[in-house]
Amino acid sequence: MEKLTLKGKVILEGKIKLKTGMHIGGTKETLKIGGTDNPVIRDAFGGILIPGSSLKGKIRSLLEKKYGRYDKDDKRDSYLPCKCGKCEICKIFGPHDSKNIYEPVRVIVRDAYLQTEGNKKDYEYLEIKVENTIDRLKGTTIKGGIRNMERVVAGSEFKFEVVFNIYKEEDKELIKKFIEGMRLLEDDYLGGCGSRGYGKIKFKDMKVICKPKEYYEGNENSKIESNKVESLNELESELNKVWEGLTFN
Questions:
Q1: 3-state secondary structure string across the chain
Q2: Cα–Cα dist 157/227, whole Å
Q3: What does the pLDDT read at residue 1?
Q4: What residues contact 100, with CB distance under 8 A and at least 6 apart?
Q5: 174 with 88: CB under 8 angstroms?
Q6: What is the pTM of this model?
Q7: Quick one: pLDDT at residue 113?
Q8: What is the rounded distance in angstroms from the CA atom of residue 15 to the CA atom of residue 27?
């Protein structure tokens, strides 16, 4: 295995804005009387969030489908994340088989928390969407086919942070690959029930922060922050600018 040393960290920050209602399922243990049996996920204090695992997994899945980087599991007749350990996707996210780790995994995806306005509470950003199953012959609702889905309302915003550990100069291409996955996600969906219109999102208020190894040695002035941008194409351009703060000697 090649001996690699950390050259610094590149951080993508911004907001995820919901264009439609979103449902990422949570536990029913905190269900209140009169509530829904399909609640959204919350933390231990009731805070609404997009788990980092959900955001990371969705972006990885979209990239794997685009490039055909997934593995057949004959035992379960299903397809699983790539486990080769050598492709760009495995370098970014890590291989599905820990035995095939040849380089340090590059990306860390934080939980993204709901951004509230003024004195509004998290629960004020929730709605109940009633769904049902239709009898194909009668055109009426099937008895017992009604379900109540809790959703975070359209227009809600979540603050996200993605951290890349940088070891090689070519790692910039891995960050660009991740941004490509973000583009794919904007035209897909996040969470469940996407085919029914849930989970359309838009990334906004984004910037790139470059912290070279000198920053962690005490030189805070070595940190470079980009301008705030509204499109992923602009974000990639800002990445090219701040990348000059890293050295690979």
A1: CCCCCCCEEEEEEEEEEECCCECCECCCCCCCCCCCCCCECECCCCCEEECHHHHHHHHHHHHHHHHCCEEEECCCCEEEECCCCCCHHHHHHCCCCHHHCCCCCCEEECCEEECCCCCCCHHHHEEEEEECCECCCCCCECCCCCEEEEEECCCCEEEEEEEEEECCCCHHHHHHHHHHHHHHHHCCCCCCCHHHCCCCEEEEEEEEEEEEHHHHCCCHHHCEECCCECCHHHHHHHHHHHHHHCCCC
A2: 20
A3: 60
A4: 83, 84, 85, 86, 90
A5: yes
A6: 0.91
A7: 98
A8: 25
Beta-bridge partners for 70: 81
Sign of CA dihedral 65, 70, 72, 73: negative
Q: Which two tokens mark 21?
A: 């209602």
Question: What token pair was written down for 62?
Answer: 């979209």
Yes or no: say if 113 and 159 are a contact pair by the CB < 8 Å rule: yes
- Distance between CA atoms of residues 71 and 44, nearest Å: 35
Which residues of the chain fall short of a pLDDT of 50?
A: 30-34
